[in-house]
Design a protein that fits this description.
Helix content is 0%, strand content 55%. It has no helices and 11 strands. The strands form 2 sheets. Strands 2, 4, 5, 6, 9, 10 and 11 form a 7-stranded mixed beta sheet that branches. A 4-stranded antiparallel beta sheet has the order 1-3-8-7, with no helix packed on it. The protein is elongated.
Length: 123
């Protein structure tokens, strides 16, 4: 049983920075891709960043150049460094990990989600 615990959200002013963390815990599991989604009030949930086990990152256009995703495989943790924050970045941010349990009999990854952390950017 893999659990993801997020931290780092909060209230900031336009132009400031935040760093989100998401740590996976459990025993015997393997993790492939990890990443971040966000959902703002009235908006659809959107994927904003992903990173492979080997460290190859992808971003949605709206955060390119401002957000950086990284991971520490030894700590089973993914990070999202957010800079130059804007009010339109206000959302609940959810991390995910694509996991294989210890008893996996196929290569079908199961996506596990964090609980969400609220980021509010005031103008």
């Amino acid at each position: 049983q893999v659990q993801l615990v997020e931290s780092g959200g909060g209230l900031v002013t336009t132009g400031e920075s935040l760093r989100l963390s998401c740590a996976a815990s459990g025993s015997g599991f393997s993790i492939g891709d990890m990443g971040w989604f966000r959902q703002a009030p009235g908006n659809q949930r959107e994927s904003i960043a992903s990173i492979t086990h080997g460290g190859s990152a992808s971003y949605v256009d709206s955060v390119k150049g401002r957000f950086t995703i990284s991971r520490d495989n030894a700590k089973n943790t993914v990070y999202l460094q957010m800079t130059s924050l804007r009010p339109e970045d206000t959302a609940v941010y959810y991390c995910y990990a694509d996991t294989l349990p210890p008893d996996a009999t196929s290569w079908e990854f199961l996506r596990v989600w964090g609980q969400g952390t609220l980021v509010t950017v005031s103008s």
